[in-house]
Amino acid sequence: MFRRTMWWRRTGMSVLGGLAACLLVASGQSAGAAPADQPARDSMNQAFDRAAEEFSVPRDLLVAVGYGETHLDGHRGAPSQANGYGVMHLVSNPERQTLERAAVLTGESVNTLREDTPANIRGGAAVLRAYADDLGLDAAERRDVNEWYPVVARYSGDDTGYPARLYADTVYQFLQQGVSAGVAGGERVTVDPRTVRPERGRYADVTLDQPSTLSTDYPPAKWVPAYSGNYTVGRTSAITTVVVHVTQGSYAGTISWFQNPSSDVSAHYVVRSSDGEVTQMVRDADTAWHARGGNSYSIGIEHEGYVDNPSWFTDAMYRSSAALTAHLCNRYGIPKDRTHIVGHSEVPGNDHTDPGPNWNWSYYMQLVGGTNTVNLDFAAYSTQRVGSTGAQVKAVQQLLNTQGFDAGTVDGIFGSRTESAAKAFQTARGLSADGVVGRGTWTALLSAGTTPLLENGSTGAAVQRLQRALTAALGRTVEIDGDFGPATGTAVRDYQTSRGLSADGVVGPATWGALQAGR
Fold first, then answer.
1. Which residues sit opposite 30 in a β-bridge?
2. Residue by residue, what is the 3-state secondary structure of 61-81?
3. What's the pLDDT band for 71 if we cut at 50, 70, 90?
4. Which domains does the chain have, with CATH numbers?
5. pTM of the prediction?
6. Which of 56, 268, 332, 410 is the most buried (most CB within 10 A)?
């Protein structure tokens, strides 16, 4: 991502991402004693159990922090932009040394904490407990997940204001919403939704809305300025290029890092994974330090996530970023082509790999060019396979591309590339990987995306996704109008009943989970 001029600027930074999944177990759940020399063969669930028990940190919270930092991916010991390591992103840089503190607290070596996931999780728990002790949390308070809010804010690495509030709120949104995350080795770490009422303390007065500080360059974006020493005022060249980056970390952490005087890096815009929120940090008229050799003539857009983990690249992110890029192209006369809209790896003189092979350039450029007119709404979804052609094949290709499974050009011809993408998607969803898009695969494809709570009176794009998925799953037409009315409620209850779910007509995590599993 960033230009490489300092020793810790290697593969990415991390703190928190878009809303998704982690393991939530009742606070204080017993998991047995945790020996100091925790064996590496422990599963991730066991590692979280043991670390939570040993350091009296709510397991719910521990996993939520880890998920927000890395999506529970240790990235094989590679460091982040902030020189952070492992699932819990233990950091070692001039401004923050949680890696070294974890070594002192646990007795583990720095190398072990970097490379061994159970040790890294144990180190994260130890640091959180040390922060809790520093802030005076007693035993009763430590049992209440809501009391840990100031501790989580401090773990962000910037406990002074906006980034810390953004970080901590995201962790508590994970706890509120619940998730299910697949991790290395085929294990699944899950989170049951729960009601949270965090005690924000001094962070209660820090606003995230900031209506008076919206971007003047791109009105949908928030304006949170980077540290003045991390960019150059003015430009020496006309703006001719948009550069796509991946942060190698989280949205909140990226914002914090660009505000850090030690980072010596910045970008013009940062896009959040979960919902596509955009924050501008350097004015278009100024030169951000994001792509060595290309800074003078380009605008840099950072995307929350990691190059090697496609779960960060959501449809909301693609659409939001593409709208921003289209705006920039229109404003500055930049051609909407791959010569002028490039990845960091394509800027001459750079040695970075982002956005990497998981970035769906085909879909992104369709969105930027305004050519995304594929119809997804049908009265029935028929089986599609190799040799099929037409509008529903285009829909399959569009949906597969959106989810990061490369079906190639959306041309309405079901060939070998579309079949391979369908098989990969089916495998990822636990479906029979036959490459045939039948009822289950249609249901999983059409429902893929965020999982907001929907009920009678809800409206919008998420309701349309639900209605399409119900049409496929039930084998009957559900009107796709984006309005959750009585007919949609009946369809939801029929689906819930037929799948053994609580038939309350409310679409929550269980119903979304069944739909997205192709049930």
1. none
2. HHHHHHHHHHCCCCHHHCCCC
3. very high
4. 44-203 (1.10.530.10), 222-369 (3.40.80.10), 388-437 (1.10.101.10), 447-517 (1.10.101.10)
5. 0.65
6. 268
